Amino acid sequence: MAKLSLFERRRRRVRTALRxxxxxxxxxxxxxTGRHIYAQIINDGEGRTIAAASTxxxxxxxxxxxxxxxxxxxxxxxxxxxxxxxxxxxRGGFLFHGRVKALADAAREGGLEF
Length: 114
Prior knowledge:
This protein has 114 residues and is of the alpha+beta class. The chain contains 3 helices and 4 strands, in the order αβββαβα.
């Protein structure tokens, strides 16, 4: 077996802990790159994406904190439209800091509970 990167080890550790305490709540998964930030609400029981938001379609996006706040508000609105109010937050292997934290705070302000 190949040695896992620190990021991959952290991602697996976070995901395992989420499975243990999530119950049947959907998962708010966050992924960020140098250019974009993505958020999805996933129902792991059905293996289906309930709602998604990202900076891909935005003309002047960028991967800064302001863009993360916009994606957080968008994912909260999409979740509310789909009838989801409570989720578990999956930060992946990313630290809860900067853009990831800004997205989470904006999603909470938008009405999601986690």
